[in-house]
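Module 6 notes. Inverse folding takes a fixed backbone as the condition and produces residue identities as the prediction. Think of it as a translation problem where the source language is geometry and the target language is the twenty amino acids. Below is one complete input and output pair. Work through it position by position during the lab.
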């Protein structure tokens, strides 16, 4: 059975319904943070790095942090108490769970995780007003949208995903 998937248009409608203001920037297709930065580095706020991961027991994690955050999977694994360490999950599972493809991983994919099988892990700087805006891909990697930390929390509440907040700076 194929589940209906939320696309960019439906995401933007959802943000509007929730009263979440956003800025949208169109750019060429990008597959990495490094490819995206020339198109978003001039914007107020921070561009998000998003990783779709799994542990040995096939628990899935969506990790979101500032793009310039140095992420060591071993350290992250200990912080989230992952069983047997963390590794990148296959693209087929990324599509199955979040309706996304490589290069377009985003917190907004949680709209497609109606079974709540993905644990969200957020760098706490995304929720403590360190940044005025956080930029994520809106289900595709040909644009980015910026929302406030308050908008992010409103969005997450609407999906039923309670983030595990971690501090990678310590």
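Target side of the pair, the amino acids:
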């Amino acid at each position: 059975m194929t589940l209906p998937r939320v696309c960019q248009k439906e995401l933007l409608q959802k943000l509007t319904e929730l009263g979440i203001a956003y800025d949208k920037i169109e750019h060429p297709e990008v597959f990495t943070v490094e490819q995206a930065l020339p198109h978003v580095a001039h914007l107020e706020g921070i561009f998000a790095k998003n990783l779709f991961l799994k542990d040995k027991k096939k628990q899935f994690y969506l990790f979101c942090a500032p793009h310039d955050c140095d992420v060591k999977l071993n350290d992250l694994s200990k912080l989230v108490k992952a069983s047997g360490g963390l590794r990148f999950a296959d693209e087929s599972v990324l599509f199955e769970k979040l309706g996304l493809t490589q290069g377009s991983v985003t917190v907004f994919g949680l709209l497609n995780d109606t079974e709540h099988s993905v644990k969200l892990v957020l760098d706490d700087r995304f929720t403590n007003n360190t940044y005025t805006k956080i930029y994520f891909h809106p289900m595709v990697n040909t644009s980015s949208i910026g929302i406030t930390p308050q908008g992010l929390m409103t969005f997450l509440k609407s999906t039923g995903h309670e983030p595990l907040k971690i501090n990678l700076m310590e």
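Reference fact for the lab report: The chain has a mean pLDDT of 93.
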